[in-house]
Every structure is written in structure tokens, then in C-alpha cells.
Amino acid sequence: MKDKDSYLTIVAPSEEILFKDRNSKFFGYAFPV
User: Fold this and answer.
1) Percent of the chain residues topping a pLDDT of 70
2) Distance between CA atoms of 17 and 26, rounded to whole angstroms?
């Protein structure tokens, strides 16, 4: 039996997010597909 894959997406792009961890900085983005 095969399961059907389903995916969720966002409606609009998110704002830029700055994540800091152990003296490192990462910018996060999310875009709808």
C-alpha cells in the first residue's frame, strides 16, 4: 500500500530572521512554493 505525500506551504514570504548561536549569525528566509 502506497501512502500519498502531502505538503503544506506558506501564503506569503516571511521577513528576514536573524538567528544567533555560539558567536555565529544565520539569516533565515521562507518563500512559498
Assistant:
1) 97
2) 8
- In three state form, how does the secondary structure of 12-25 look? CCCCCEEEEECCEE
Query: Rounded CA gap, 14 and 31, in Å?
Result: 7
pTM of the shown model = 0.44
Question: What distance in Å separates the CA atoms of residue 21 and residue 28, rounded to the nearest whole number?
Answer: 13
Cβ proximity of 24 and 18 under 8 Å:
no
First to last CA, the chain: 28
Q: Which three cell numbers stand for residue 24?
A: 555565529
